[in-house]
Write a structure and sequence with these properties.
The structure holds two protein chains of two kinds. Chain A is α+β, with helices and mostly antiparallel strands. In chain A, about 40% of the residues lie in helices and about 15% in strands. Chain A folds into two domains: about 5-80, Beta-grasp domain (Ubiquitin-like (UB roll), Roll), CATH 3.10.20; about 90-175, DNA polymerase, domain 1. Chain A has helices at about 25-30, 90-95, 105-120, 125-130, 140-175; strands spanning about 5-10, 15-20, 50-55, 55-60, 75. By secondary structure, chain B is α+β, with helices and mostly antiparallel strands. Chain B folds into three domains: about 25-30 and about 450-595, 2-Layer Sandwich (Aldehyde Oxidoreductase, domain 4), CATH 3.30.365; about 45-135 and about 205-250 and about 260-290, Alpha-Beta Complex (Aldehyde Oxidoreductase, domain 3); about 295-450 and about 600-745, Aldehyde oxidase/xanthine dehydrogenase, molybdopterin binding domain (Aldehyde Oxidoreductase, domain 4, 2-Layer Sandwich). In chain B, helix 11 runs parallel beside helix 18 (about 710-725). Chain B is globular, with a radius of gyration of 27 Å. The chains are: A alpha+beta, B alpha+beta.
């Protein structure tokens, strides 16, 4: 079958690839773009190990065709850190020992990031339900929920700092 | 508690702290390489064709059309995996399980495989393989498989001089149970069923195999034991062990399921035939159908006690379903069933039974959870009958130091009593229960294992240390090993880098089973570090021109002993390392050991549940794990083991089961239909780590990985039974089963 040419953005980088019409975005990321951070745990959208975002929306990349990424912004675990600065979720997962084998970790981090982008002050219950599409067989989720809670706190602090900076900037502008 | 702790290396400086794990960054950035994450130049995609029948004779396999398909580079059947096992039945079973020969023994049994240039071509090729099956009668139920007229799974297996599905009978115990039951005031007898569960690791089996016509090969694979995989694969394929290099990838969960080769010999055979690297990754469907679940069981338990709570006799008959090939599973069930208790008259008889289901392999404390479900449920029933608190009843009968275990040995210092005392004092026991809520507790035991271990420790010229181990890191053990090396050498944790070596770089290490990783590699690390310290003392003595006997090692430095040498300033590891090129060359420590003396492990769990009487749905409200770790090297990861095991047990207790149809086919081979616990199903899982040192380990370590899955089935069973007022005796206690039990009770059945 002739391949399809797809133009997209992955983690902020303009990316082009050719894929088969029936090829999943997960296979494209892993086999054609070398981004193996997203994992295939089931291939049926049940485990969340392949979680990525498309235009900010959390999806299972095993349920999306590569061709559907045309013109979209794809976000994967490889784009979560800002250069050598880890995202608070990444920091807190290490700090709280929220991973054992680590196979589900990329999916959890991408899903938790989507949660915190939407709600940086989630309750335990909101965290547990937001992450219910991601399976972890090692941890019993205890340390994962604690890590997300701690990261949410960091994110709120960051947000407060940015807001304060923006306020000061605005005030300074006014004074000028 | 009065235990001898003189061997536990005095006060620990870094052991017991909670530093970040060395592989943490790789695992939160997506950089860590698991089984399916590597690629080789010219790599092909492998796929396996599997039997759709529970039991069938394979009359003919026609691969000609598949072979002719453009892009197909190799097609193999059992003809390409000739029997080189020389009458070793265990190896033959492994070979036949990897690729069926004249019969397919279960739904999912491999019958052929292809390697092609891409996934699409490989899948197309599978469809072109034509197999002429003659369907045979099948059996998938353990009790039915024991009947005289049951279809026979393995004709070579005989019992009572007849072909039979009973592969093994094991008996353990001591005393006279008949006499013991005669002395009892109350005797409870009950039967239990547990359904088959899967380890459910999120990473499917995956490997990248490369074998050339020169007989040399490499295998990158997700495994708990790459040395064992190397030996087994080399033997099945007729290769020299030294010429097959196996590298263990990061492992995405194993829990026993990755102790066994399932498709790796197939990948190697495909690669050999195509003379190209072959990547073979199972789908989730294949993982469920064709890789190691644990047994389903049928168990009868009888316990007798006096009114004061003294158990006078206990007996169990255990029937373990092994799948299509015999294993030690019934035996392990018999050995573990009564291990928590000090009973005068005790007996267990276990049957290993073959059925047309996938070959069973280890699942975390294999066989113990089912036996514990039966025993601990009956213990609760008995406590109730004699009007005694279930915790007190267990404390009264708990095994202790000097108890002769039902399976033979006499215990040293053990943790069952202390875990029960901790349960009694835990605030969880005082939490208020509401309507439709119930509390249950249960105990569990696992042997633990040591085994062959080999470790290297190399000191760089800058004073940093490479620790090279051969046990696979399944849950953070590289952090624990680094802590141990730092403790011994007296240097900061950050200066140790721990790696898991491939099979060409280190001596044999047994598979990471039996919670042995931290116990055995920890032991070898201690001895390897001491070996390096001996060398560093030699170097210091030489530099100081004094006798090595006058040098001692502490706080990361060589110190000259005695008043005569008081003018000699201590020489640090870093200084000795920096001078090493001119003082005798590289400094290394090494150890190889059969790590005997794994300390037995005990746990007691408490659980609160709420059962919806309308739907039979059970919500776990609170859960507490109390377990003896011997010594917790990195407490975060000890807690993680406790919590993870409990969560797996909760899933098994309430939801997880293999569902077979009348046609003998597995009906729920997906994570949608085989539902493991998700985040919103569980509460926080509280943990209490007890440290009763194992006298056979320099740091007192006991394995901690497995015991935590043993009590949950029974703890939840007891909690649910207390919540609904009727005894549940069938795991999983899914909503329909609970509802049925409630309805039967209401109907007075």
């Amino acid at each position: 079958m002739p391949g399809l040419h797809v133009s997209t953005t992955v983690n902020g980088d303009v990316t082009e690839f050719v894929c088969q019409p029936d090829e999943t975005l997960l296979d494209v990321l892993r086999n054609r773009l070398g981004l193996t951070g997203a994992k295939e745990g089931c291939g049926t959208g049940d485990c969340g190990a392949c979680s990525v975002t498309i235009d900010g929306q959390l999806v299972c990349s095993c349920l999306v065709l590569g061709a559907e990424a045309e013109g979209c912004k794809v976000g994967t675990i490889e784009g979560l850190a800002d250069g050598d600065t880890l995202h608070p979720l990444q920091e807190q997962f290490i700090e709280h020992a929220a991973l054992q084998c680590g196979i589900c970790t990329p999916g959890f981090l991408v899903a938790a990031k989507a949660l915190l982008d939407d709600n940086s002050n989630p309750s335990d219950e909101e965290i547990r339900f937001a992450l219910a599409g991601n399976l972890c067989r090692c941890t019993g989720y205890d340390k994962i929920v604690r890590a997300v809670n701690a990261a949410a706190k960091d994110v709120r602090k960051q947000q407060a700092r940015l807001q304060k900076q923006a306020r000061l900037k605005k005030a300074a502008k006014k004074r000028r | 508690m009065a235990h001898d702790t003189s061997f536990t290396n005095q006060e620990f400086k870094v052991v017991g702290s909670r530093p970040p794990r060395p592989d943490g960054l790789d695992k939160v950035t997506g950089r860590a390489l698991f089984g399916a994450d590597t690629f080789a130049p010219g790599q092909l995609v492998g796929r396996i064709l599997r039997s759709p029948h529970a039991h069938a004779k394979i009359r003919k396999i026609d691969t000609s059309r598949a072979e002719k398909l453009k892009g197909v580079k190799a097609v193999i059947t059992s003809r390409d995996l000739p029997d080189l096992t020389n009458g070793n039945r265990g190896n033959f079973d492994i070979l036949e399980n990897c690729m069926a020969r004249d019969r397919a023994l279960y739904d999912g049994h491999a019958v052929a495989a292809v390697a092609a240039i891409d996934e699409q071509t490989a899948r197309k090729a599978l469809k072109l393989i034509k197999i002429d099956y003659k369907i045979l009668p099948h059996v998938t139920d353990v009790d039915k498989a024991m009947a005289a007229d049951a279809p026979i799974v393995q004709p070579h297996i005989r019992h009572d001089d007849k072909p039979s599905n009973i592969a093994n009978v094991s008996e353990f115990g001591h005393g006279d149970v008949d006499a013991g039951f005669d002395q009892a005031d109350v005797v409870i007898e009950k039967s239990y069923l547990t359904e088959q569960a899967h380890q459910g690791y999120i990473e499917p089996h995956a490997c990248l195999a490369s074998v050339g016509p020169d007989g040399q090969g490499e295998l990158w694979v997700t495994t708990q034991g790459h040395f064992t995989f190397r030996n087994v694969c080399a033997s099945l394929l007729g290769m020299d062990i030294a010429k097959l290099k196996v590298t263990s990838s990061e492992i995405g969960g194993g829990f026993g399921g990755k102790t066994h080769v399932w498709m790796e010999p197939v990948a190697l055979a495909l690669s050999r035939k195509a003379n190209r690297p072959v990547k073979l990754v199972m789908t989730r469907d294949e993982v469920f159908k064709a890789s190691g679940p644990t047994c389903s069981t049928s168990i009868d338990v009888k316990i007798g006690a006096k009114k004061d709570g003294t158990v006078t006799a206990a007996s169990a008959t255990l029937r373990y379903q092994d799948g299509a090939y015999p294993g030690p599973w019934g035996m392990l069930g018999a050995m573990t069933s009564w291990a928590c208790y000090d009973f005068e008259n005790v007996k267990s008889v276990a049957y290993d039974v073959l059925v047309n289901r996938p070959k069973v392999t280890a699942y975390r404390a294999p066989s113990a959870p089912m036996a514990a479900f039966a025993v601990e449920s009956t213990m609760d029933l008995l406590a109730k009958e004699i009007g005694m608190d279930p915790v007190e009843f267990r404390i009264k009968n708990a095994a202790k130091e000097g108890t002769r275990a039902s399976y033979g040995p006499t215990y040293g210092p053990i943790g069952i009593g202390p875990t029960l005392e901790a349960v009694k004092k835990h605030p969880h026991m005082k939490a208020k229960l509401g309507k439709n809520q119930g509390r249950g507790m249960a105990c569990g035991f696992w042997f633990n294992f040591g085994g062959q271990t080999c470790t290297d420790l190399n000191i760089g010229v800058d004073g940093t240390v490479n620790l090279t181990i051969g046990t696979v890191d399944v849950g953070g053990s590289r952090a624990s090993m680094s802590l141990i090396a730092a403790e011994e050498l007296g240097i900061p944790y950050e200066r140790i880098k721990c790696n898991v070596a491939d099979t060409a770089s280190l001596g044999h290490n047994d598979t990471t089973v039996g919670s042995r990783g931290t116990f055995s590699s920890g032991m070898a690390t201690i001895f390897a570090a001491r070996d390096a310290i001996d060398e560093m003392k030699e170097r210091a003595a030489k530099a100081w021109e004094i006798e090595v006997e006058d040098v001692e090692w502490r706080d990361g430095c060589a110190h000259a002993k005695g008043v005569a040498h008081s003018n000699l300033a201590p020489m640090s590891l870093k200084e000795i390392a920096a001078a090493s090129p001119t003082t005798g060359g590289p400094i290394a420590g090494h150890n190889e050991v059969v790590a005997d003396g794994a300390g037995v492990s005990f746990a007691s769990h408490i659980c609160d549940v709420e059962v919806d009487p309308e739907t039979g749905f059970t919500k776990v409200l609170r859960y507490t794990v109390v377990q003896d770790a011997g010594k917790a090297i990195h407490p975060d990861y000890v807690e993680g083991q406790f919590q993870g095991g409990a969560a797996q047990g909760i899933g098994w207790a309430l939801n997880e089961e293999y569902v077979y149809g009348e046609d003998g086919r597995l009906q729920n081979a997906s994570f949608l239909d085989y539902r493991i616990p998700v985040c919103s199903d569980l509460p926080y899982i509280d943990t209490v780590i007890l440290e009763i040192p194992n006298p056979n380990h320099p740091y007192g370590i006991r394995g901690v990985g497995e015991t935590s899955i043993v009590p949950p089935l029974a703890a939840i069973g007891n909690a649910v039974s207390n919540a609904v007022g009727v005894r549940l005796n069938h795991v999983p206690m899914s909503p329909p089963r609970i509802l049925k039990a409630i309805k039967e009770k209401q109907a007075g059945l």
